[in-house]
Amino acid sequence: xxxxxxxxxxxxDAEDAIEAAQLLADTGxxxxxxxxxxxxxxxxxxxxxxxxSNPRPGENAAAYAARSIRETCDYIRDFPIRPDRTAIFxxxxxxxx
Length: 97
Description:
Elements: E1 12-13, H1 14-23, E2 31-40, E3 43-52, H2 61-78, E4 86-93
Antiparallel strand pairs: 1-4, 2-3, 2-4
Helix pairs in contact: 1-2
């Protein structure tokens, strides 16, 4: 999907991206952040927008993972809607060890 940008990542529309993030709850996987793209009639464009969630000092892994999911969902919900393009979101997740 994102081959035009030199990546094999998958980007999801807002509803699906929120659902994907929420599926990570209770897995210990954090959403490190993500990138936003636009789907238009002409194809895909960079939105030049992104977010990140970094661990806070003293925050345990489970608390960080839960907070990162909340922050991700909030960012996606708050992203401005434009009538001429659809925002799509590529999530960057941590690895489980």
